[in-house]
């Protein structure tokens, strides 16, 4: 028996059956007086279902209009974003810039007068305010086997490489001018040129033998750090070097808030910014003369702003007051721009660089 065919052989379309059955249920005046047994059975079932019965396979029920909740939420979020942009534009840029240490510098003008640092908030008005503190800002990649080292050995070497950055650029004693013994202990004692440098640099600093090439130091009689936090951003990367060595590259920016050694509670605060690039080689002791647990230095360079310029003294010498205004005659650089290679900006030797922001 085909669809839409009566038991007595008559043929009706589905549409006719639909109208017939609905009319029967409603008791319409023009409905047939003697519906078939099939019609009476279906009509009985339809009456028992107040909602009109299940949806037919040929029918289409229009969806209810959706509330504009989504557009309302979008509008509300847009309003909140505009409000945040107006109140704290720098933070919004940091949010969308992400945490990639090598992403282009956060855009923005120099800190406004209302955003100058204070003793309680030494990073106020600076992009570094949203950076991590200390070693937490130095990203270490996942270790895998390279050259003569297993994955576990690479992991240890990466940890010790970061230890060197901490001991040379974050250790409080070293920052106060002490000799960086912990950092020096990680350098291959058989690397003669570096050992000669270390012997000379702290005794008679010069442009060639300046401890600032590897270490951050302030003269305690002149400068003191503000607070206990140094902000950092950077990362370690690695690859296989010569003779199967593990070659680690560190590219890290350090931001030091400092003031005069004899400053009061409301004295001038300067942020000294140092970006360092170090290439370290963890050599196979079967192929290179070295001591276990130490690395050789392949190369090192740095950029520095607000750290003084002129003849090397072995210390970072932030400019304060009139000294700062005198230093502002040099090349203008953005010390937070990590998209350019190290060595292309900052102060070096007798050349000064003026930071567009600190």
Number of helices: 9
What series of H and E elements makes up the topology?
A: HHHHEEHHHHEEEEEHEE
State the shape. Answer: globular
Regions with little confidence, pLDDT below 50 for 5+ residues: 1-10, 28-33, 51-74, 84-98
Indicate the radius of gyration in whole angstroms. 37 Å
What is the number of E strands?
9
Q: Helix- and strand-based class?
A: alpha+beta
Report what the structure shows.
- The chain has 3 domains: 14-47, no CATH class; 68-97; 115-355, no CATH class.
- It is 27% helix and 17% strand.
- It is built from 9 helices and 9 strands.
- Strands 1, 2, 3, 4, 5, 6 and 7 form a 7-stranded mixed β-sheet that branches. Strands 8-9 form a two-stranded parallel ribbon.
- Helix 3 (69-87) packs across helix 4 (89-97).
- The protein is globular and about 55 Å long.
- Mean pLDDT is 78; it is low at 1-10, 28-33, 51-74 and 84-98.
Q: Keywords for this structure?
A:
single chain, 358 residues, alpha+beta, 3 domains, 7-stranded mixed beta sheet, two-stranded parallel sheet, 9 helices, globular
What are the SSEs and their pairings?
Blueprint: H1 14-26, H2 37-47, H3 69-87, H4 89-97, E1 132-133, E2 138-139, H5 151-169, H6 172-175, H7 181-184, H8 192-201, E3 223-225, E4 231-240, E5 246-260, E6 269-282, E7 296-305, H9 322-327, E8 331-333, E9 353-355
Helix pairs in contact: 1-2, 3-4
């Amino acid at each position: 028996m085909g669809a839409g065919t009566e038991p007595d052989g008559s043929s009706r379309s589905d549409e006719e059956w639909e109208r017939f059955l609905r009319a029967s249920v409603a008791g319409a005046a023009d409905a047939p007086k003697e519906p078939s047994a099939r019609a009476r059975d279906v009509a009985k079932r339809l009456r028992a279902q107040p909602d009109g019965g299940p949806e037919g396979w040929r029918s289409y029920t229009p969806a209810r209009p959706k509330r504009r909740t989504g557009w309302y939420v979008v509008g509300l979020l847009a309003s909140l974003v505009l409000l945040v942009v107006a109140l704290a534009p720098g933070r919004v840029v940091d949010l969308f810039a992400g945490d990639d240490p090598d992403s282009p510098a956060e855009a923005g003008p120099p800190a406004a007068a209302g955003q100058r640092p204070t003793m309680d908030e030494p990073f106020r008005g600076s992009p570094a305010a949203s950076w991590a503190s200390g070693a937490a800002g130095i990203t270490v990649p996942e270790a895998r086997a390279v050259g003569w080292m297993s994955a576990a050995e690479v992991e240890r070497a990466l940890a010790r490489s970061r230890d060197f950055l901490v001991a040379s650029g974050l250790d409080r004693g070293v920052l106060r001018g002490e000799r960086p013994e912990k950092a020096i202990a990680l350098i291959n004692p058989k690397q003669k040129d570096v050992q000669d440098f270390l012997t000379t640099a702290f005794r008679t600093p010069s442009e060639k033998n300046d401890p600032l090439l590897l270490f951050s130091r302030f003269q305690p009689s002149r400068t003191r750090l503000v607070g206990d936090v140094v902000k950092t951003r950077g990362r370690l990367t690695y690859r296989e070097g010569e003779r199967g060595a593990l070659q680690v590259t560190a590219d890290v920016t350090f931001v030091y808030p400092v003031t005069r050694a004899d400053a009061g509670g409301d004295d001038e605060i300067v942020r000294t910014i140092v970006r360092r690039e170090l290439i370290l080689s963890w050599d196979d002791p079967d192929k290179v003369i070295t001591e276990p647990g130490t690395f050789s230095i392949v190369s090192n360079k740095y950029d520095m702003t607000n750290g003084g310029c002129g003849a090397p003294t072995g210390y970072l010498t932030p400019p304060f007051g009139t000294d700062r205004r005198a230093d502002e005659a040099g090349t203008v650089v953005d010390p937070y721009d990590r998209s350019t290679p190290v060595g292309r900006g900052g102060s070096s030797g007798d050349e000064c660089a003026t930071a567009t922001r600190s």
